Amino acid sequence: MRVVFDPRQLGHAPAREFHNGGWTPYAEVPARAEAMLAVLGASEAPVDHGEGPILAVHDAGYVDYLKTAPARWAEAGREGDVIAYTWPVVRRRDIDLTRIDALAGRYSMDAATPITANTWDAAYWSAQAALTALDIVLDGGQAFALCRPPGHHAGADYCGGYCHLNTAAIAAQAARDRDRARVAILDIDYHHGNGTQDIFWSRGDVFYASIHADPATDYPFYWGHADEVGEGAGVGTTLNLPLPQGTTLEAFRAAQGHALAAIARFAPDLLIVSLGVDTWEGDPISAFRLTTADYAVLAGNIAAAGWPVLTLMEGGYALEALGANVASFLSGL
Ligand code: Q9C
Ligand code: ZN
C-alpha cells in the first residue's frame, strides 16, 4: 500500500473554531497527519497535477477566495484566521462582494473552518495527494491518500466542517475525465459528506453512498437524511444511511453491506472510499463505538467486491488511535 502525502499539508493550523457557542481549540490539527505517518511508515510526495482538476470541481471565484482571503483579512486590519459571521441564507443572489466578511459568508457554511495564510497551499497539496493516489490505483496499484485538510464537507463553492477542497470529488471527477465511466464514492466518516453529495446531486455517473450519524443529532444537521436520493439524472445515485449515536460494528457493517449492494448494482469502474475514523469508540467529537479491529473487517468486506479501491482520508480526531485505526483499515483491503 503506497501512502501519498506532502509536508505542505501540515501548514494549515488554525488556532480555534466556533463550537456550541464558544471558541474551542481546532480539532483538525496537523498532528493528525503526523500520527498517521508515524504508524504507516514511509510516504511519497504527490505529483503536481496543477489547478485543472481542482477547477473541474470547484468554482473559480471560490478558489480565488481561498487564495486571497488571508490577505484581504489583514488589509481589513484583522488579526488571526479568516472566519465568517454572516451568511446569505435568504434569497442569495450573485452580487459583487468586496468586504471580506461578505465573501467569508458567501463561501462558507459554518464557523468551524478558518482560513489561514497556509490554507490554500495545504488544501492544494491534499488534493494533489488524492490525484496521485488515483494515478496509482488506475495503474493497478494500491494507494492511500493521506488527505489533510479533509474534503467531504466542502462543496463546489464553499468550505465547511474543516474542509476546503473536496478531495474525493476531485479524484472522482479526474477518474471520469480519464474515461472511467462510472465512479462510486463510499463515505464512512462519522459525519455526512454534504459537500460530496451536493457536488454529484444531479449526476448519474457518480454514485455517492454515505453511512453517518443521524443529522437529527449530529453535524452537518441539514443533510444526510435517508430521503435524500438525488435529483434529475442523479435520482437514485445518492444513498444515505444515517445511524444512531452509540452504533457498533454490527449495525455499521449491515449498513455498509446495504451500501455495497447498491454500489454493485451501479457497477462502478472505481470505488473511492472517504475514510473517517471519527467512528472510533474514543473519538473526542463523535459518538459511534467502532473498535480498531473493526476497521479491518469493514475494509475486508469492501475489498471482497473486487473493484479498484482508492482510499482517502477524511476525519478522525483521537490522535492516540488515528494511526492504528487507519492501518487496521488498510490491512483489510
Ligand atoms: N468541535 C470531518 O470529520 N464541528 N469534519 C463539530 C467539534 C464540525 C467534522 C464540532 C465537525 C466537522 C471531516
Ligand atoms: Zn467526520
3D structure, described in words:
Keywords: Hydrolase, Metal-binding, Zinc. InterPro entries: HDACs, His_deacetylse_dom, His_deacetylse_dom_sf, Ureohydrolase_dom_sf. Belongs to the histone deacetylase family. Its cofactor is Zn(2+). It comes from Sphingomonas donggukensis. By secondary structure, the protein is α/β, with parallel strands linked by helices. The protein has a single domain (2-58, 118-332), classed as Histone deacetylase domain (Arginase, Chain A), CATH 3.40.800.20. Helix content is 35%, strand content 13%. It has ten helices and nine strands. It has helices at residues 31-40, 52-55, 60-75, 100-106, 119-138, 167-177, 194-199, 249-266, 292-303, 319-332, and strands spanning 2-4, 16-19, 22-25, 143-145, 183-187, 206-213, 238-243, 270-275, 309-313. The strands form two sheets. A seven-stranded parallel sheet has the order 1-4-9-8-5-6-7, sandwiched between helices. The protein has a two-stranded antiparallel sheet with strand order 2-3. Strand 8 (270-275), helix 9 and strand 9 form a beta-alpha-beta unit. Helix 1 packs across helix 10 (319-332), helix 8 (249-266) runs parallel beside helix 9 and helix 9 (292-303) runs parallel beside helix 10. The longest helix is centred in the middle third of the chain and has 20 residues, at 119-138. The chain is globular and about 55 Å long. The termini are close together. Bound molecules: N-{4-[(3-aminopropyl)amino]butyl}acetamide and zinc ion. N-{4-[(3-aminopropyl)amino]butyl}acetamide (Q9C) binds at residues 17, 19, 24, 27, 112, 150, 153, 161-163, 189, 191, 219, 276, 278, 285, 314-315.
